[in-house]
Amino acid sequence: MGIAAFERAATFEIKIQRCNLWFLAKSIISSTAALEISSAVGVNCTCTLAGGIEFRDIESRGRIRGAVATTIYKICEDVLWDEAERAGVFRGAPIDARDGFIHFSSATQVRETAAKYFAGADNLTLIAVDADALGDALKWELSRDGDLFPHLYGELPLVAVLWARPLPLGVDRRHVFPELTP
Question: pTM score, two decimals?
Answer without folding.
Answer: 0.66
